[in-house]
Input
Amino acid sequence: MLSIALIAHDRKKDEMVNFVTAYEHVFEGHKLYATGTTGSRIMANTNLNIHRFMSGPLGGDQQIGALVAENEMDLIIFLRDPLMAQPHEPDIIALLRLCDVQGIPCATNIATAELLVRALDRGDFAWRELVHKYKPGIE
Output
């Protein structure tokens, strides 16, 4: 079971709901997290159970980022709106930087999300189980 975060900017929420609904069978075997409204909308349209954090502008991106920093998140699908300025842009950049630092796969558009979910369905992320099994302690 992998930990997967689902985040979508306002103009991408419908796209996220449609995407997760289409791949509900893939997501149902994993531990799901989402920012506030995105998680609510997905749960209203699927049978998935999602741990919801605050909305992104209120700290939800940072809450997910904390899990990434601790290497507790395995995959992130973050449908960003590249044409709309976000008031919490520094938090978004910090989250993406943490994904790069920790080597966490992160899709920021629907095309990449499709590739990652198909890989997830094939079992291509089994290596993340090893990361958790051999995670070194904090020194």
About this structure: The chain has a mean pLDDT of 90. The longest helix spans residues 89-102.
